[in-house]
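2024-03-11 09:14:02 DEBUG pipeline.ingest accepted 1 chain
2024-03-11 09:14:02 DEBUG pipeline.ingest length=398
2024-03-11 09:14:03 DEBUG pipeline.predict start
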Amino acid sequence: MNFNKKTVRDIDVRGKKVLIRCDFNTPIDENGHLTDERRIQGALPTLRYLITSGAAVIVVSHLGRPKGQVNPKYTLAPVAKRLAELLKLPVSLAQDVIGPDADRLCAEIQPGQIVMLENVRFHKEEEKNDPVFSQKLASYADVYVNDAFGTSHRAHSSTAGVAAYLPAVCGFLIEKEISVIGKALTNPARPFVAITGGAKVSDKIGVVNALIDQCDTVIIGGAMSYTFLRALSGRLGTSPCELDKLDLASDILVRAMEENVRLALPEDLVATETFAADAQPHIVPSRQVPDNMGGMDMGPKTIEKFKKYLKDAGTVVWNGPLGVFEFEQFATSTREIARAVAESGAVSIIGGGDSAAAIEQLGFSDRVTHISTGGGASLELIEGKELPGIACLMDSDE
């Protein structure tokens, strides 16, 4: 995929109406309060740039999964309210997406003003990338800006469809994502170390295979490591294993050996008899877990081994927690590896989702190079897949 895309800096937006796709899919509590506004904060630089450059800004986003139906539970009203507070500007929320209220507000909007359309997923046509719906959205504006990296791996009307009808560029958030991740993938500082964790091998087969092609060391931890350990004839007790993926795990282990890539697995685990925050922990060899126990975290030997690989790394890509980090007692390996990444001095990219939450929760977010705003999108980028919401943007002249 071409990582050199035109940005909002490359076009003149003064006096123009700009349709911008943001990712404001933020958690909201039962009282309508945002419990995590990182995604809104991430969009502010592009929005401020457009406003100060004299554009009239029309914001499009989704929230939750309303399944193509209007559902007040998923209204963007709390997001519009908070965005207005952060920008210190009024944000007019249309009562619909392509209906009469959106028509009126988008017709009347002036440079320096902001209109937000209601949840774009209230229309089933959005996720179908319906061309008629895309064309109607595009008719509101002169220029399209995509700054929603977290949804760019989906070919929806508001992420890719509108680009067929308008000049299309990226915002600063996507610019940073593709420049940082793109550089790490095309010209990484070495040694290049990848850390993959999380629950399932099946979710990350393509990513692990892509990383073997690029990395010097691939560390596999978390619950997905249990399937690899089982493939090596390990006894894993009640630890979750994908038995139908054992052959696949074996193939990956052989491939890493053939490519001369170090594939590092846990040597010891923290295991318990029950899955609970206060369960009694036992340190056990990773391939000899008692029948009545299951893995909850990486053990101390494993942590030290993994930290050694990170000490001299030039580039680190990390996706997925290494234990049940939501339970404090079993967050040790995730915390210690986060600390090692932060202290490594490497170019460090945290691939969204749970690993991003863990880094922030553990207080290391200001000590890594980049925390991706899109878990699925960053994984597909690492895997070498083309992201429709970025491929549709105009290529840079450089």
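2024-03-11 09:14:41 DEBUG pipeline.report The chain is about 35% helix and 15% strand.
2024-03-11 09:14:41 DEBUG pipeline.predict end
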